[in-house]
Amino acid sequence: MTLHQMPAEDAKPAYNYAYLDEQTKRMIRRALLKAVAVPGYQVPFGSREMPLARGWGTGGIQITAAIIGPADTLKVIDQGADDTTNAVSIRKFFERTANARTSEATEEATIIQTRHRIPEAPLKPGQVMVYQVPMPEPLRRLEPREAETRKMHAWAEYGLMQVKLYEDIARYGEITKTYDYPVLVNDRYVMAPSPIPKFDNPKMHMSPSLQLFGAGREKRIYALPPYTSVKSLDFEDHPFRIQSWSQPCGLCGAADSYLDEVVIDDRGGRMFVCSDSHYCETRRAQGHRGTMLGDAAASGLVQPSSPHPEEAAGAAVSKDDPVVSGASTSILRDAPDGAPQDEGSREQRM
Amino acid sequence: MTAQDMISPGFSDPVFQSQAAFRALLAALSEPGTGQRVAAEIAPPEGLASATATALLTLADYETPVWLPAALRDGAAGAWLRFHCGATLVDDPAEAAFAVIDGAADAPKLSAFNPGTDQFPDRSTTVIVQVAGLEGGAAFTLSGPGVPGNRRIAPQGLRPGFTAELRENGALYPLGVDVVLTHGDGLIGLPRSTRIGEAR
Ligand SMILES: [Zn+2]
């Protein structure tokens, strides 16, 4: 799992600053300006090949490459963690091609490139979120033809989406979609928020930070300016609800964060921990202790006393992305006992 | 005098100057009404504000037709744009991806430019409106995406009825042109999503 086509570190760079040529950056920048002018509308753009394997978030990478400059500090997260293969590779890509300053601290970052999560720490004015989007079209599962979905957006014909969501309620008693839960932006466009858990949807509404979305394969860019209305689709008799858990984070005791279930030993022991690794580490460094922290430390999963646990190799709970690295033994995504009912499998019925 | 003598330099460091200028434009259009500065120290051709010239150097190229008033198109500004951006200068405002107008001039109206189509509202003109000042004129309020609550701006030297034009443009939403007011090295974004309040 390495970047290919990358020159040796001491070789003279054969590419432009941040990899992309200036003509490509201009094209992406023009698309970004139209995207912020029409929040939630998907702007077509001429996506370029990037020196990364498919599925690595080339849409997000192209946006970051088009906006990043010497004044920026870049944070990259995947599954909420900074230390996954994917996040580390993207960070290294920008360290190498743009001499980028990087950080795992949410509050230090000016650009946060993400897949799957919005950080738990509140975002600030001036920060830019860049989302890697695999499927930008929220209507695609209902209507496979691009020409048709484009008309549906053009005329704000979202009845089919409402019908589909209501069928879910009729059949399962609730809307079953837990990731990439569709939102209505600025009371006009229905938008795919990317595969974040619906837990994160409320963070998008009136966020003080600028949010940019890039889909490389599908060649779409869209955006949410700061302070933009973002409503999760719902019904009066079935209001939108986020996931909740019956227990707090086992390591830091947080009761307000999105939790993953992890295996902690080979006897099937499990615990719930913050998906946002930086948030969890920050809380532990502040002295917050979860009920499982002692056990986790004893079994070598975490080093609670370290002020920089991420620097201790192998110390942090492994968060390798199962999608990229194949079967992961440390993260279970199936709904276990004690987990919220809708924090289920990644299979979406919609 | 040759054409080269007429043409002042563009960016001395295109990669970083255009990156910084783009972030100012991105901030301007994502937070309408906020004053932004382009730090690129360029000598713009006669008739273009430094912010106007910097925005065009950053965004325009052979893919983006540009509309200029005749006096600018036929003078140093037109030659400068062709030389540095490779942009085609068009006569029809409706064909322009970018346009520069004088905020005090009677014509062309914002409605003369391309508002995009219902299926491709991104194909609209971005209209750079050069004004006599970004502050100190008649105030009006802004609201909508990018604006927490209300924001008040008071640009100087806009023709009578310009706020009404902005309102008519906003009524086309999600179609419509996106406006950037420029003066000196400062700029203010007024995308089509911005709602224009009463003048006061
Ligand atoms: Zn935690």
Q: What do you see in this structure?
A:
The complex is a heterodimer of chains A (350) and B (200). With 350 residues, chain A is α/β, with parallel strands linked by helices. Chain A has helices at 22-37, 58-67, 85-98, 146-154, 159-172, 201-204, 277-285, 293-298, 322-325, and strands spanning 43-44, 73-78, 101-102, 111-115, 128-132, 183-185, 189-191, 210-215, 220-224, 230-232, 259-263, 270-274, 331-332. Chain A folds into two domains: 22-136 and 192-230, Rossmann fold, CATH 3.40.50.11310; 259-349, no CATH class. Chain A is 25% helix and 15% strand. The longest helix of chain A is centred in the N-terminal third of the chain and has 16 residues, at 22-37. Chain A is globular. The two termini of chain A are 32 Å apart. With 200 residues, chain B is α/β, with parallel strands linked by helices. In chain B, strands 1-8-7-4-3-2 form a six-stranded mixed sheet, with helices on one face. Chain B has a three-stranded antiparallel sheet with strand order 6-5-9. Chain B starts with a helix and ends with a strand. Chains A and B meet through helix 1, strand 1 and helix 4 of A and helix 2 of B. The site of zinc ion has 8 residues of chain A, from strand 12 and helix 7.
Structural class of chain A: alpha/beta
Q: Termini distance of chain A? A: 32 Å
Number of distinct helices of chain B: 6
| Helicity of chain A, as a percent range | 10-25%
Radius of gyration of chain B: 16 Å
Gross morphology of chain B is globular
Number of strands of chain B: 9
CATH classification, class level of the largest domain in chain A: Alpha Beta
Secondary structure elements and pairings:
The complex is a heterodimer of chains A (350) and B (200).
Chain A: H1 22-37, E1 43-44, H2 58-67, E2 73-78, H3 85-98, E3 101-102, E4 111-115, E5 128-132, H4 146-154, H5 159-172, E6 183-185, E7 189-191, H6 201-204, E8 210-215, E9 220-224, E10 230-232, E11 259-263, E12 270-274, H7 277-285, H8 293-298, H9 322-325, E13 331-332
Parallel strand pairs in A: 2-3, 2-4, 4-5, 5-8
Antiparallel strand pairs in A: 1-9, 6-7, 6-10, 8-9, 11-12, 11-13
Chain B: H1 3-6, H2 14-30, E1 36-37, H3 50-59, E2 66-67, H4 70-73, H5 76-85, E3 98-102, E4 126-130, E5 140-144, E6 147-153, H6 162-171, E7 178-183, E8 186-190, E9 195-199
Parallel strand pairs in B: 2-3, 3-4, 4-7
Antiparallel strand pairs in B: 1-8, 5-6, 5-9, 7-8
Helix pairs in contact in B: 2-3
GO molecular function, one term (chain B): lyase activity
Pfam family, one (chain B): PhnH
Protein name (chain B): Phosphonate C-P lyase system protein PhnH
